[in-house]
Design goal:
The complex is a heterodimer of chains A (about 400) and B (about 130).
Chain A: H1 2-5, H2 15-28, E1 33-36, H3 39-46, E2 54-59, E3 65-69, H4 70-79, E4 87-90, H5 98-109, E5 115-119, H6 134-143, E6 147-151, H7 154-161, H8 165-189, H9 199-212, E7 226-229, E8 253-262, E9 265-275, H10 280-299, H11 306-320, E10 331-333, E11 365-374, E12 379-389, E13 394-396, E14 404-407
Parallel strand pairs in A: 1-5, 3-4, 5-6, 9-14
Antiparallel strand pairs in A: 1-2, 2-3, 7-8, 8-9, 10-11, 11-12, 12-13
Chain B: E1 5-6, H1 10-23, E2 34-41, E3 49-56, E4 59-66, E5 75-80, H2 81-88, H3 94-99, E6 103-106, H4 109-114, H5 116-127, E7 131-132
Parallel strand pairs in B: 1-7, 2-5
Antiparallel strand pairs in B: 2-3, 3-4, 5-6
Classes of the chains: A alpha/beta (about 400), B alpha/beta (about 130).
């Protein structure tokens, strides 16, 4: 609530204005009520983390109302700027299950049950996206027999694309916290500290360091903090490594990909090590990777597209003889909690995937993400860092020094 | 033999009001300010009826019965006459009636949960009225 009221707060976001912007877009599309169900929509409007199945009903005028599992409704009402009158809990009771409760609420907003209701339907690789399920859609369709359901998620996607300063500052702080986590990991690994340590232990000590700094969540659904050692760093085309019970070994690579959340802003930075003694071949892979990360960060700016950037980087990798080891993608989308999928809008050749011709604009935030994997040699590296797109450069938010150090 | 009041009649309402005011102090009612309409469907005479409560700072300020459209209330509970009658006779808990879909609640459940124990106290008082159903 503090950040809502205090415009001088670095994390201030004008949430009531966001709602008005949505309502203006609804009016343009002749939508009477917007029924949101995606986690990203809920985060972006409520300023609260909604981990259970939740919905948000946005009328044509006035404040939205959240509907969530009853066990979490009072907490969300406390955390959100919307307050108790605009957060409802649902439960299996007469009139209080999510379908009937929301249907009754929406019908009260419509004129004799008639009108257009915007819903969120689509697909994603991100499991917790929160699209309306077939069952939910069917039930609402039956309940709103005199109204028309229309897919309207682009309204939110467009408005959420360019980040305001409060949002960017929340991402900056989340990244600062991640850097503290990385320093804690590095300190723990050095001077033989890695011996006997497992991937899960590293994930935990990073989490502890970040929590001490105020992180709310190791938010990634990929097991929180992702740690990979040895051959696990080099899965072909792989970029998902929930920490395992594997022990860190001398002479192996180690990838540390950790996540923090600050006021729904997300930190996500991957840093890599070679556990000594490193051989020349490992060192060469590491140098390749660092060089392409540096070049990628120098290349990101407003006006470039994912495909143009990928072409340039893959040309560089090919010239250097390591294109076989590169996953030819250099980004993933990011926004408030729940927004971790494609870049930009759903306007590419493959529905709901990143449009390779999306033109980056100033103040977009994305994760610069790269994966290098040489499976036959059991070695790989990952780079992830939230970046802010500026006119002529990008701003990496995690400041942990870019390097692949040898740990002894 | 004690006088019996016809359920939801004006006389029953008067007795309910007398007992609620006598037995439920503002403290016992947690100083609530709220209102609730119980909508009775399928009444014996075939009508729809209502029972409306309004509390201001824990004081019962309005208790209405009728067969017209009930006043606007923070909570609206709809169900068959027989279900409400069983609740008033303490044969059925209101929570169970909601959980088995015998009653339908309209209103913010988070606020309703705060009032659940108060509603139970209220029903307990009403159950003490000698009533002809």
């Amino acid at each position: 609530m503090g950040s809502l009221l205090d415009r001088d707060d670095p994390y201030f976001i004008d949430f009531p204005q966001r709602v008005k912007d949505i309502q203006a877009e609804m009016a343009k599309e002749n939508i009477d009520v917007y029924l949101g169900s995606r986690l990203r929509t809920l985060s972006w409007i409520t300023d609260a983390f909604c981990p259970w199945r939740s919905f948000i009903v946005i009328p044509s005028e006035g404040l939205p109302t959240v509907f969530t599992f009853v066990i979490d409704a009072a907490r969300i009402a406390d955390d959100s700027w919307l307050g108790e009158d605009h957060v409802y809990g649902f439960a299996p009771m007469g009139g209080q299950d999510q379908i009937e409760q929301i249907a009754d609420f929406v019908l009260d907003l419509l004129n004799n049950g008639k009108g257009r209701i915007g819903v969120e339907s689509g697909m994603s690789n991100y499991l917790t996206e929160g699209w309306l399920t077939y069952y939910e859609y069917s039930q609402f369709e039956a309940a709103f027999s005199n109204a028309e359901l229309v897919n309207a998620h682009t309204i939110i996607d467009k408005l959420a694309l360019i980040k305001d300063q409060g949002t960017i500052n929340r991402f900056r702080e989340a990244s600062r916290i991640v850097d503290v986590g990385h320093q804690a990991v590095k300190d723990a690994l050095q001077n033989g500290g890695y011996k006997g340590m497992t991937e899960t232990e590293i994930a935990g000590l990073a989490a502890y360091a970040m929590r001490k700094q105020g992180s709310e969540f190791e938010w990634s659904f990929t097991g929180g903090n992702e740690i990979a050692s040895g051959y696990r760093t080099g899965y072909m085309g792989g970029a998902c490594t929930p920490a395992s019970r594997r022990k860190i070994q001398a002479g192996e690579p180690l990838m540390v990909d950790i996540h923090a959340m600050f006021k729904l802003g997300l930190g996500d930075h991957a840093h890599n090590y070679l556990i000594g003694p490193a051989n020349d071949r490992q060192r060469r892979h590491a140098d390749n990777f660092i060089d392409i990360v540096k070049l990628t960060l120098e290349t990101y700016r407003a006006g470039i597209t994912p495909s143009k950037l990928a072409e340039q980087m893959m040309d560089f990798a090919d010239e250097r003889g390591f294109s076989d080891y590169m996953v030819p993608g250099f980004e993933h989308g990011i926004g408030f909690m729940g927004d971790e999928w494609r870049i930009g809008l759903n306007d590419g050749p493959f529905p709901y995937w990143t449009n390779p011709d999306h033109v980056y604009r100033k103040n977009e935030v994305l994760i610069c993400a790269m994966q290098y994997a040489c499976q036959e040699e059991g070695i790989g590296f990952r780079y992830e860092n939230p970046i802010v797109i500026h006119e002529d450069h990008c701003e990496p938010l995690s400041k942990f020094p870019l390097a692949i150090e040898e740990i002894t | 033999m004690a006088e019996k009041f016809q359920y939801l009649s004006p006389e029953w309402r008067d007795e309910a009001e007398r007992r609620l005011k006598a037995e439920l102090s503002p403290e016992r009612m947690n100083h609530i300010t709220s209102s609730m309409s119980n909508i009775y469907l399928n009444c014996p005479e075939g009508k729809k009826r209502f029972l409306f409560f309004k509390f201001d700072n824990g004081e019962l300020s309005e208790l209405l019965v009728g067969d017209a459209e009930p006043p606007e209330a923070e909570f609206r509970i709809t169900g068959d006459y027989d279900v409400f009658a069983r609740i008033t006779r303490c044969e059925l808990g209101s929570q169970k009636a909601l959980m088995t879909r015998k009653l339908k609640l309209k209103g913010n459940m988070i606020k309703a949960l705060k009032l659940a124990s108060v509603a139970d106290r209220l029903n307990k008082v009403l159950s003490g009225i000698p009533t002809e159903f």
